[in-house]
Write a structure and sequence with these properties.
The protein contains 12 helices and 3 strands; from the N terminus they run H-H-H-H-H-H-E-E-E-H-H-H-H-H-H. It is mainly alpha-helical. Strands 1-2-3 form a 3-stranded antiparallel sheet, with no helix packed on it.
């Protein structure tokens, strides 16, 4: 710093120097996320320097950074989910029915992984074909289930060799845990998709996107997901619009020159 800016004290660092650094990164076509990450690292250093008395102000406070583009969530195509449940990809035993019920439930309801883990047999209302779910902030919601999913869940409970109040258990009869669910979901999704990310949360994204693509109301999807506000759900509208644009671009009726 002394050699380049003739500056020996951190107190003398100027905003103009940092602004020039950001401009230089933009000139070198660094991604907005890379620029944000580097400036964020500097701001963390400034906090440390202010605590130790080496700096009094944050020179980066007035720096304008390039806008970050929103990352759309990864989503499986509808045909992949149809193939998964249409083919005999699940074993014909209680473990296979557990796996099928588990994945069907996540895709059909958009439940969070933590919500799945905490489910009890008592949460299942077979008469009303509903499931009681306790989400973030202990907020309770009731989600309707398809008859096929309800039947699969009940069959797996009746067939499993363990007596438990927990709705889904591991092969050893214990409570589910995050890595167990991830391995089961990743295994089955990899049979029908080459998507790079195949986590339980992808099923939640897929659930919401497919509903909106088929005309579901945003507020209804919000309630099913257990979101506190519409702003959290609106990201899926962008995904649906992007998908529609892709479909239009692939249409044989589109005679516009391709880029």
């Amino acid at each position: 710093m002394k050699a380049e800016f003739e500056c020996e004290s951190l107190h003398a660092v100027k905003s103009e120097w940092l602004r020039s650094y950001v401009v230089e990164m933009m000139r070198k076509q660094r991604s907005p996320r890379t620029i944000h990450r580097k400036v964020s690292a500097y701001r963390t250093f400034v906090k440390f320097a202010k605590r130790s008395g080496s700096m009094a102000l944050d020179p980066a406070e007035s720096i304008s950074l390039p806008k970050l583009s929103k990352r759309l969530p990864s989503v499986l195509p509808e045909h992949a989910m149809r193939d998964l449940f249409a083919e005999n990809m699940f074993a014909d035993n209680w473990k296979g029915r557990r796996d099928k019920s588990l994945i069907a439930l996540m895709y059909e309801t958009g439940m969070r992984q933590g919500e799945i883990i905490s489910l009890q047999v008592a949460d299942l209302d077979t008469e009303r074909k509903e499931l009681r779910v306790v989400g973030k902030g202990s907020k309770e919601r009731r989600i309707p289930l398809l008859p096929e999913t309800m039947q699969s869940i009940n069959e797996h409970i009746e067939e499993r060799p363990f007596k438990s109040n927990i709705l889904f258990v591991t092969d050893a009869g214990r409570s589910l845990y995050a890595s167990f669910i991830y391995r089961r979901v990743h295994h089955y999704l990899s049979l029908v998709s080459s998507l790079k990310k195949m986590s339980p949360h992808v099923l939640r994204h897929t659930f919401a996107t497919h509903l909106l693509s088929r005309g579901a109301e945003l507020s209804a999807v919000k309630d099913l997901l257990g979101h506190a506000s519409l702003s959290s759900t609106q990201v899926y509208t962008h995904q649906s619009l992007t998908r529609m644009k892709d479909l239009h671009a692939d249409s044989p009726l589109d005679v516009r020159p391709k880029k």
